[in-house]
Amino acid sequence: MKKRTFVIILSTAMLASMATGAFAATKLQQIKAYLNPEIKVQVDGTFKTMRDGKGNELASINYNGLNYFPIAAIAGALDTAVDYNKETKVISLGEKVDGVSIAKGFSDMYFTKDSKLTTYKGHDYKEGWFNNGPGNREASFMLKPSKKYQTLYLKVATIDGDISNFTVKDADKDVILKQVATITPEEGLATIEVDIGGADSLYIFGDVKDKTAVFVPLTASYYK
Q1: Are 222 and 99 in contact (CB under 8 A)?
Q2: Do 36 and 54 meet the contact criterion of CB atoms below 8 Å apart?
Q3: DSSP string for 99-112
Q4: Is the CB of residue 214 less than 8 Å from the CB of residue 157?
Q5: Which UniProt keywords are given for this protein, alphabetically ordered (predicted)?
Q6: Percent of the chain having pLDDT more than 70?
Q7: 108-141 b/e with 16+ CB inside 10 Å = b?
């Protein structure tokens, strides 16, 4: 019996030592915090239940007078994608892109953050270009890659009609870099890949008819 007790104690000590060693190998610091179930979260006026990855309800953690929730829970409440890279130890919020999002610095009268307009097929892209102007028209906007990138990956969707002669032009050289004859609603979110090496400004346009809208999710379109 004494031998068995000794083995259990030794095993426990080894586990504690291993745990201590694991923490010592990181920059984690031990703190004293409290759970605060009284804290509630509202998003755009609507109460949201904070949950973990398994769907369990979470309480806020209070530390030094501040309340905290896991980033994944906050992202879920905001309907925002979240990802963690174990190798780089980087947490990413929002759309995952392989390059630089065109949302940065984008300016146009049809720029919007209205979730009713930035949501396409059930997914809210948060920032978008949504051209729903009246009448038959040329739907157009400008981009400024400033000669920093080689390729543009542009996501485009049309709603209630086609867009024809969709064109990406080097605005300074007046040279067409890419032209797509027709993009239809049935294609869903189409990806237009364009070689933009050396381009400072881009003029992007296409022809649409009355009651047709064009959507470009800025957070999912990017330079590379």
Answers
A1: yes
A2: no
A3: SEETTTT---TTEE
A4: yes
A5: Signal
A6: 84
A7: eebebeeeebbbbeeebbbbbbbbbeeeeeebbb
Q: Give the separation between CA 215 and CA 221, rounded to whole angstroms.
A: 11
Strand partners, 62: 34, 67
CB-CB neighbours of 219 under 10 Å? 22
Name every residue whose Cβ is closer than 8 Å to that of residue 139 and which is 6 or more positions away in sequence. 131, 133, 163, 205, 206, 207, 208, 214
First to last CA, the chain: 68
Same domain, residue pair 85 and 107: no
pLDDT at 43: 81
Domain that holds residue 120: 100-223
pLDDT of residue 86 exceeding 50, the answer is yes
Per-residue tokens: 148: 């920093």
Residue 171 lies in a domain: yes
Residues 59 and 37 sit within 8 Å (Cβ to Cβ) = yes
Mean pLDDT of 172-178: 97
Residue 141 has pLDDT above 80, yes or no: yes
Tokens of 115: 């979730």
Residue 73's pLDDT is what?
81
- Mean pLDDT of the 91-98 span: 64
21, part of any domain:
no
* Residue finishing a domain among 93, 116, 134: 93
The total domain count for the chain is: 2
| Cα 39 to Cα 68: distance, rounded to the nearest angstrom | 10
The pLDDT tens digits of the residues spanning 205-224 come to 999 999 999 999 999 999 99
